[in-house]
Specification:
Its main location: membrane. The protein is of the alpha/beta class. The protein is 59% helix and 7% strand. The relative contact order is 0.11. The mean pLDDT is 93.
C-alpha cells in the first residue's frame, strides 16, 4: 500500500475516533425527550409489531427503528447506549469528510475539514440525539465519496461495480431518510460542474435511476403518511435565523458569525489571488450539497406544505465543513496558524457543546429520564399508577414509563387500554380516570404523573419555530383531582422535576 494512502487512512481513523469521543462524552447526562422516547418505544417492539406500526406511521424512520431494535436488545435502553449509535455515525461521517477532502485536494484539506466538521455545533447535537440524523450525515458523506471516487476507478468492470455500489448506497440512504433523495440533484450539479468527471454521466445516471427505483416503494409509503408532519410550522420571519444559525450552528451564534467571516475573508483572498483546481473541485461538491437539499425543502414548503426543519438537513453539515476547511487552508499558510484558528473556533463552540449535554438540554427541558429513575426507586408492586396530560407533551405522561418499562414492573396501571403495539400506533391512548374497571378507591397508593405547577402562562419557541403556550396549571384545580377526592384519596406527597410533577395519593383515614 502506498505511504500516502496509508497516511490518509490513519488521518481518517484518528479524526473519526476524535469525533466519536467528543460526540459520546456526556451523552448519558441529558434526559430523554419526546422524539427519543419514540425511538425507545418503537425500537423496543417485536419485528412484527414494528412492521405493523410502520404501515401506519413513522415509516420515514423505519430503517433506523429496525436497527435500534437489535441494538437496544443487545445493549439496553440507557441514555448512553441509545445515543452511542449516533456518536459512532458522527465518527464515520468525520472519517468520510477527511477522505473526501483529501480526494478533492490535499491531505491538509482533508484533516482540517474533518476537524471543522467535528466542531460544528449541529454535529455535536446529532451525536447526543437518539434519532437517525447522525446516520443521515454519514450516509450523505460516503455516498458522495463514492460519487467522487467512481470515475477514477480503472477497468470497465471495476468501475461498473463502483457505480453499482453507488446505486445500492443511494437506495439505502433514501430508505434511511427520504430527504436524502435531494442528494441526487446535488450530485447531478456536481457532475455538470466538474469537467473531469462529465464522462461518468452515463454510469452515474444509470446508478441514480436504479437507486431511486429501488427506494420508490418506500417513498410511496412515506408520501402516503405525509400528514404526520402536519405540525411543522409555515415559513415566516424565523427562517433567516434558522438558516444562518440553527441549521449548522445551533446553540452557538458566535461560532456562526466567525464561520461567516471566515468564508468571506477566504472568498476575498481567492478573488484577489485567483482560485486553483482544489478550490473549484471543492465548490463543485460542497455548494450543490449545501444549497439543493435546503432549497428543495423550502420550495416544497411554499408550494405544497411546510416541510423545512433545521434538523432535517443535518446531512448538509459535511459540505459546510468542506467549505470551512477550504477557507482555513486558503487563508492560513502554516499548520500553526491553522491550529490557532481552529482553537478559536473550538473555544467558541464550548458553551453550546456543554449546553447540549446538560440534564435538561432537550426541547422544553423534558425530563422523562429523571422521572423514570424516580419511579424505579419509589414505586412498589401493587401501587396504582395513572398518567395525566401535560401542556408541553404531545402525548401523555405515559412516556415516562416508555423510557424503561421495567421501572414500573408490578404496578397496577389504571389507565392502560389496548397497547400501541397491538393497534399499530405510535403511542397508547389513556382511559378516562372515571373508568370503573379499576376503582380508584381500591388503591392504597396512587402515583399520578402530570404537568408541573405553573402560576402564569409560559411560552416556549423551539428552533423548529414551534411556539408552545403552556397555560397556568394547578393540580388541585383539575377535574382529575376532583375525581380522586370523590374516590376518597388525598395528597400525601408530591415531587416537582423540571417540567413534570409526580403526586402520591392515599385513602383518607
Amino acid at each position: 500500500m502506498p505511504e500516502s494512502v496509508r497516511t490518509r487512512r490513519w488521518d481518517a481513523l484518528l479524526v473519526g475516533v476524535l469525533a466519536v469521543v467528543l460526540g459520546a462524552a456526556g451523552s448519558w447526562i441529558p434526559s430523554f425527550w419526546y422524539d427519543e422516547v419514540a425511538t425507545l418505544h418503537s425500537g423496543g417492539r417485536s419485528p412484527s409489531d414494528l412492521w405493523r406500526m410502520l404501515g401506519n406511521i413513522d415509516a420515514v424512520h423505519g430503517l433506523y427503528y429496525a436497527g435500534m431494535h437489535y441494538w437496544l436488545g443487545a445493549f439496553g435502553p440507557s441514555e448512553f447506549s441509545a445515543r452511542l449509535p449516533s456518536a459512532l455515525a458522527v465518527g464515520a461521517a468525520a472519517a468520510g469528510v477527511v477522505v473526501l477532502g483529501a480526494r478533492l485536494g490535499t491531505r491538509r484539506l482533508g484533516v482540517v475539514s474533518g476537524v471543522v466538521f467535528v466542531l460544528l455545533p449541529r454535529v455535536g447535537w446529532a451525536a447526543v440525539e437518539a434519532r437517525g440524523y447522525a446516520l443521515t450525515v454519514a450516509a450523505a458523506v460516503w455516498l458522495t465519496v463514492i460519487l467522487v471516487a467512481a470515475p477514477t476507478v480503472r477497468g470497465r468492470w471495476r468501475r461498473a461495480a463502483a457505480w453499482s455500489g453507488y446505486a445500492v448506497a443511494l437506495a439505502v440512504s433514501i430508505v434511511l431518510f427520504a430527504y436524502l433523495a435531494t442528494m441526487i440533484a446535488a450530485h447531478l450539479l456536481t457532475l455538470l460542474a466538474r469537467k473531469e468527471v462529465r464522462s461518468s454521466w452515463r454510469g452515474w445516471s444509470v446508478a441514480a435511476a436504479a437507486g431511486t427505483a429501488g427506494a420508490a416503494p418506500f417513498l410511496a409509503v412515506v408520501r402516503a403518511q405525509s400528514g404526520q408532519v402536519g405540525w411543522i410550522p409555515p415559513l415566516d420571519s424565523h427562517l433567516p435565523r434558522a438558516l444562518a444559525e440553527y441549521q449548522w450552528f445551533v446553540g452557538a451564534p458566535g461560532f456562526a458569525v466567525a464561520f461567516g467571516v471566515l468564508l468571506v475573508v477566504a472568498a476575498v483572498v481567492t478573488a484577489t489571488r485567483g482560485g486553483d483546481g482544489t478550490w473549484r473541485r471543492v465548490l463543485a461538491v460542497a455548494v450543490p450539497w449545501t444549497v439543493v437539499p435546503t432549497a428543495a425543502l423550502l420550495i416544497y414548503s411554499v408550494v405544497e406544505s411546510p416541510m423545512y426543519l433545521d434538523r432535517y438537513v443535518a446531512f448538509t453539515t459535511p459540505a459546510a465543513a468542506l467549505l470551512g476547511g477550504l477557507a482555513l487552508t486558503r487563508i492560513t499558510a502554516r499548520w500553526w496558524t491553522t491550529t490557532l484558528t481552529v482553537a478559536v473556533f473550538a473555544a467558541l463552540v464550548v458553551p453550546g457543546y456543554l449546553a447540549q449535554r446538560g440534564p435538561y438540554a432537550k426541547p422544553s427541558g423534558m425530563d422523562f429520564s429523571e422521572v423514570n429513575r424516580f419511579a424505579g426507586e419509589h414505586l412498589r408492586p401493587g401501587d396504582c399508577v395513572l398518567f395525566g396530560a401535560a401542556a408541553w407533551n404531545p402525548a401523555s405522561q405515559r412516556l415516562v414509563e416508555d423510557v424503561r418499562p421495567a421501572a414500573f414492573d408490578g404496578v397496577r396501571d389504571l389507565g392502560a387500554g389496548r397497547t400501541a403495539a397491538s393497534e399499530g400506533s405510535l403511542w397508547e391512548l389513556e382511559r378516562a380516570v372515571t373508568d370503573p374497571v379499576e376503582p380508584l378507591a381500591s388503591c392504597q397508593a396512587l402515583w399520578y404523573f402530570t404537568d408541573q405547577e405553573r402560576d402564569a402562562t409560559r411560552t416556549v419557541r423551539h428552533t423548529s419555530n414551534e411556539l408552545w403556550t403552556l397555560p397556568p396549571h394547578h393540580f388541585e384545580d383539575t377535574a382529575q383531582f376532583a375525581e380522586f377526592t370523590r374516590a376518597g384519596l388525598r395528597i400525601e406527597d408530591r415531587w416537582s422535576f423540571n417540567v413534570t410533577q409526580v403526586v402520591l395519593l392515599r385513602p383518607q383515614r
